[in-house]
Amino acid sequence: MMKKTIQLMLVMLIGVLVVTACGDDALEGNESGSDQPEVVNIGYLRVPNDEMVAKTEGYFDQYFADLGIETNFVVFDSGVEANQAFASGSVDFASMGNTNGIIALSRGLDVELVWLHEILGEIEALAVRDGAGIEQVEDLKGMKIATTFASTSHYSLLQVLNDAGIADDVELVDMKTVDIVAAWERGDIDAAYTWQPSLGRLLEDGEMLISSEQAAEMGHKTANVLLARKGFTEQYKGLTTDFIAALVEGGNLYREDSKVASESVADPLEIAQEEALMQMEGSVWLTPEQEVSSEYLGTSEEAGDFSRVMKQTSDFLLEQSSISESPSQEDFDAFINPEYIEAYLAR
Q1: Residue 241 needs a FRET pair 20 to 30 A away by CA distance; which of 171, 186, 234, 283 works?
Q2: Rg (Cα) of the chain, in Å, rounded?
Q3: Structure pTM?
Q4: In order of start, what are the domains of the chain with their CATH numbers?
Q5: Nearest-angstrom CA–CA distance, 303 and 325
């Protein structure tokens, strides 16, 4: 009788341990075993930010490769291409300017904003030719200006043109960044608002008329953001938190040793280390603690100021007919999801 009682107790104990383990896995979103994805598809921009550092330093491999998960990186010229990929379901994460994040929400894409890569400063700017006699924005009246439509550069350009009162007196041309450089070299355009590294090519024989840092000081803040497919994040919460962890490591390397971080991204961007460092210093990199502060994304309980920036930008895009409908403030509050940053900070 005693032997049967002990056997029964052992069976019950094993059952409790199994249930407890399953419960812990559910809380963290454990993806072990056959439930984990074979590949994570990541869309990125060719800019020297935390994601580029994490990619070149192999930080994503530390979290995914060791689990047997492949990381497939796909480069996009802009968020327009990233949103097309989200619409087709071909990417799980993608970086873009916050204006394209707004477009994703307005089009009803099943995605959410989970991270701010950087607040844009001199990494984006309006460039004019040396010796062209253009000393202020008003001098651009009657000229041809290139930018990538629906991008943060486009948004900033429209704002500074409006502030100068010449929005209807210039010709805007929609171009990809590579085409902007080519048009500049041919002399087809008078000015261009674009981002690094293309901006650096223009500044070789041009000058910066106004930067996104100055535009932000005028009340037009922009940022590069990370969007994630909700079908992925809701199923693989732990892996999404791991993705955030890799980005944090990329940012930490820059904060701890900017020379090493800039050397890491220089080769893949095909620029000198000094140029990479200058570009990195042209934007504001946030710590995870800053990300969830009231100034930026806020918390799961209370949305931060960046949600209101998104709404204000959205209303402007609607006025410019860039979108057909501006989501509500409540929609933006729900669109921004800091839960994975909070999960990282709780580890």
Answers
A1: 283
A2: 23
A3: 0.85
A4: 39-121+221-345 (3.40.190.10), 124-217 (3.40.190.10)
A5: 22
